Fold this protein.
Amino acid sequence: MGTGTELGRVRGLGAAHEGVHHWWLQRVTAAGNLFLMIWFVVSLARLPVIDHAAMVLWLKSPFVAVALILLVISVFWHFRLGLQVFIEDYVHEPGNKVACILILNAYVVICAALCIFSILKIAFGGVPA
Amino acid sequence: MAHNPARPLSPHLTVWKWGPNMLVSILHRATGTVMAIGGGLIFTWWLVAAAMSPNAYDIFYTWLVQPDPMSPHADAQQAVHIIALIVGIGLSWTFFQHLASGVRHLVMDTGAGYELRTNKLGAIATIIFSLLATLAFWLWIFWGKY
């Protein structure tokens, strides 16, 4: 960090004009995933059955619904960042790289939106058990 | 030329051997990718099916979790269910491996654990943890059911 201008060092963005934002968010969401995924896996395993009635009843609890929405945000954000690095490392042709990143963004946004809407619909009583 | 295996190898594109740290490094990326695509799609299907209707959920449930012996597709469901169980065990292992190597990454982000011996032991520990945790998890699941 010794070769930039004074202003460049203050901004802290480096040669890629991105700084450590991507790297840092990957760590923040990793910490979120650690707690939320352990809660999710243990909770699912503790349920005696996971049929439709059990799922709807379980997801109606505010704590479960909110925790699951936070899990979707944290996990999907985390793997969007991770798969972006995967694509940047292995897809070399610039056009293909842009196309892959766009497909990745579409996949993440569509699936996350479907998940969050589904959780809310069940939590607000939109699905008869 | 005589090769003395005790001497260290210089890093080179073609002159290297597998070590636990290299294995864990690529496993971290592979397990993350598998979970993001496979796990993400199954997780989304599960939630959307639950939000649609009991019938939509039953398709997920009878094909992946619990085959319905009364269904006209009972045999096919039984076969797919076994594949789903293998995929489920695989995904649970990828989860525990990614979790362990992820925590190892967080420790290494602080600048700790780069000594050769510590680094190698840490890598081996993530593999042992993921295998034991997968075994314990499925023993717990089946213990409760049967």
About this structure: The CA atoms of residues 49 and 59 of chain B lie 8 Å apart. Chain B has a mean pLDDT of 92.
